[in-house]
Amino acid sequence: MEVLSIVGGALLSAAFQLLFQKLDESIKSHNLQQEEVLDELKRWKLLFPQILALLKDAEEKQITDSSVKIWLDDLRDLAYDMEDILDGFQADAQRRTLTTKSHQASTSKVIRRFLPYFKHNESAFDSVTISKVKEIAQRLKSMVDRSTTLSLVSSRMQVREGTAGAAARRVPTTPQLESDVYGRDNDKEAILQKLLNDEGNSRGEVFCVLPIVGMGGVGKTTLARLVYKEVEQGRFNPQAWVCVSDQFDVMSITRNILEELTKGRCDLNNLNLLQEKLKGELSGKKFLLVLDDVWNEECNLWDNLKIPFKSGAPGSKIIVTTRNMRVAEIMGGKNSVHCLKVLENDDCLSILAQDALGVENFDAHPNLKNVGQEIVKKCKGLPLVAKILGGLLRDREDLEDWKYILNSKIWNLQGIQSSTLPAGLMLSYHHLPSHLKQCFAYCAMFPKDHQFNKDELIFLWMADGLLKQQSGDKNQMEDIGHQYFSELLSRAFFQHSSKDASRYVMHDLIHDLAQYVAGETCCNLENMLEAKKEVNAEKVRHLSFYCKELDISKRFEVLNKMKGLRSFIPIYSSALVGLNGNNLSNTVVHDWLVKLTCLRALSLGSYNIRKLPDSIGDWKCLRYLNLSETAIETLPESIGFLQSLHTLLLQNCEKFTKFPATIGNLNDLQYLDISNTPSLKDMPQEIANLKNLLILPKFIVGKTNGLRLSDVKNLLHLRGYLSILDLQNVSDNLDARQSNLHMIEALDELVLAWTSDFDDSREGSDIEAKVLSSLRPHQNLKKVTINCYGDGMMMRADGSNNMVRLEELRIENCPCLKRFPRGKLSATCRLLEIKGCARVQSLPEGVLVQEDDGGSSNNIENLKVIGLPNLNFIPSDDRLPAALKKFGIRKCPRLESISERMLQHCTRLEGMSISDCVNLKSLSFGGLSNLTRLYITGCDALESFQEMPELSLSIPNIKYFIIFNCENLKSLPNKMDNLTSLQILCIERCPGIKSIPEGGLPPSLTYLSIACENLKQPMREWGLHTLTSLLLFSIAHICPPKNVLPSSLPMLWIKDVQNLKSIPKGLLRNLNSLTGLWISKCPKLRSLPRKGLPPLLGLLWISECPRLKRESFQEKGEYWHLIAHIPQVSYMEDMPQFVEYPSVIEILVSLLD
């Protein structure tokens, strides 16, 4: 028997209570001018209390009486239909107000054009609406009459929310982390021991499958994740984790594995090509793969999936988690199955204590221990249940609350034992506050293992009206949504995704619970079409579906039956073509979706949609419209009639050019995201009518008819990020003063930008300076960027004293700017970036500090100076600030030296980058004990490090030291071997370097790249054999002789050796650990070592060595006997002209930046 009543009845009660409020508002609103409709609604109101009084009894009786279950299901459908009508009334009232105003305003031509289309809404309801209202009244009466037949007893409906009600108001704490796992040490060690065994499987394959088998909620995935994270680094390479779930699609799983391995997207849709590419990634490598939550019992599917795995190296392992022993047998792991048993009660007790009280035991709460022990007995050894119950009791120290949970009748209800869902999950759901019940049930729409985005889910909750603002609560709905989400996360109904830290998932049992609660109201299209039990499409209110590259209409024919559909949401997989590259049939958009007049949330993101139908005005209840990453160019004028719309997303719509003027009619619009819409060059003045906007990333000032800067004053609720563009169109600083930026207190980041076209008309004009000085943002701003400012002087810096919370200031691309205003930066400013200001001669006041100041008045931690050719950098009496942690300077030709005095106070400095400062002649720094990264490139005048006789005293903790393209550098610092922390050393394109410093190189190096064409010192004098930690050695212009490299070296790259004819005898013979060998740009190289290549070599890459013929590397070729054992061999005669070899330096810098 199902137990939906226990988990769903309270939800229905909450829904009817909300409906009662809406009904009462409709009756009192004076918008219902037709007596016939008003009388019917009054009948509704009389019947509502009778329905509510029956719910409590119906909840309990439904478990044993299927007729009561049907009664509750019908009641839920009725509630949806009633809300659709009431919301429609509200939308019609808003439209009547709009059309009335348009009649009165002679200028509203666009609105009047659409008036005939909506004429039937002006004064009276049409016959269809009246019929629906009467039908609802009859259905309500019928529900009451049927309750008598079912012997339902009326009672005063009081849903106890005890602990839940209090919990909803508390601040959620952090949910249990995987480091807090209890009772699995022996299991973890057993799996780790199996991983250490390098034997293949019983079928002679190089890989071995290690299944973890156990019931749902017992902790299989948690155990696999523990093992995955604790495997000795480097033992398996590569590693990948893929969630399989119940849809065993070989191509999809193969693609997911490939993307995990490469950390990139793969758009291949051919299984053979995918498998060939995966073979290449695994070839000759000992890999570790986790296939989580596998259900497949078909041998042929597994046989197809494992084909690429056979190319790996012996000792490769595949961990599989499954509930089914048959799955383990099919996948070949019968002899290595690890059966995961339920936890001991003591371990469950520790989990309960951790999640409920934040402690490992009950020592500090002895009064709760006995009750806690009894509760965990009911968990039946399932850690998930203990965790969920802990979330239910979090921070509750009242013994009565614990007893209430222990003695709940849900534990003993008939039908619980036959359910696949543990009673503890039912209980936890039952004690959620009603508003969280609704939000959780909504998530049943998503497919199992779907990784969802928090912000998107909150928007969808808002669209369905699931977020409730209490009386006196000043929080925005979005803030309330974040509170709800955090509460469900803290109770373990949601979990952080292990694959993407920004996303979340539901455990499969929790997902089962959500589906159980929601019934047929929330569905995934694929699951619905494949379901063994037919789903009644007419009952579906929320639908998700997997977005495909080509979505034809046949797939969506079921929409014609979903007259009450509220949510139409695509689910995106990594296999999608990408930005507006997916195609949705016009029939779906223009013929079927427009008929779904109950829609609240519609997403068409990533589809190649260029326009919406004019009839979108029929979506009068629509609150959420996502058109992000589509090819949409403009919106139909009828969008102005979507009076309920609160979210309109147009992110990454690169072709979007224009808003219709009717956009200004959307009074409820709060989120208008137009991030990255480069084709949008102007915005209608009607945007200023959207006074409830919270999000508007871009505000474009128009020339004559568009937005004025003063219109910003109407958008006082904006929050987060705002970029005000085209400020050159402001002709009067009064307009700037009237913008009232100081009243927009929720903004965190502000960008002020003028055009990048610096014509003569801007030279000598002071209007831009006056505009900037008239803009006075709120003191809460944390980040300010000034871009393309055209005046020679800033009369007022936005970092001045009123910006008391400013953390980051950027001044970019202001070629006319000469001077900054007087006055120091805010003491809170941590980052200052000045870029592309060709006439600036000195940094803003207060950036540099006097010697007697000690730098205490300046808190800048990150200073970036880029493209200031006239900067007279640092006077002799000034110092860089003491708080500085990162310092970067680039393209400043007047910089001639960096002295020890200049860096005197910078004891916290961690990273320094000096690039393209062509006149820099000397470097000297002492006492920089925290400096770990030093990058010097393009400094042609730098000849030596004579002022740094011993780096180990100046920068003892340096880890990354990179010198690149310094043409006149003649020597490296002395005693580099004393830099015991140095891991990466790259010296490239420094033709003046002729020798390695005396004493050699530091033994701690892991990556070494040297490419100095005039370095003639014999390699035997470099001391390379002492570098036993070296993982990669890249050498250009010279080839190492034998016995100079450490025998432990795993990777070697030899490049650009013009006279190299053959690999030196014995060079490779002694490199027994070599797994990767790259040889490139050696035009005279004509042979490989006759005595063979290193035995462990897994990759050989040869390019632009024309005397080594391609056929020599093919089967039966001259070198086939040398390379046949190497899994991955790449040979390229010529690289395409547009391909440049990345230097090791460039690769590493990109990783370190």
Automatic annotation (TrEMBL):
InterPro entries reported for this sequence: Apaf_helical, LRR_dom_sf, LRR_R13L1-DRL21, LRR_R13L4/SHOC2-like, NB-ARC, P-loop_NTPase, RX-like_CC, Rx_N
Q: What is this protein called?
A: Disease resistance RPP13-like protein 1
Q: Which GO terms describe its biological process?
A: defense response; response to other organism
Q: What are the residue boundaries of the NB-ARC domain, all occurrences included?
A: 185-355
Domain Disease resistance R13L4/SHOC-2-like LRR intervals: 583-695
Q: Where is the Disease resistance N-terminal domain?
A: 17-103
Q: Which organism was this protein described from?
A: Rubroshorea leprosula
Q: Does the keyword Transferase apply?
A: no
A Gene Ontology MF term for this entry? Answer: ATP binding
CDD domains registered for this protein in UniProt: RX-CC_like
Q: Does the keyword Repeat apply?
A: yes
Span-the-membrane segments of this chain are: none
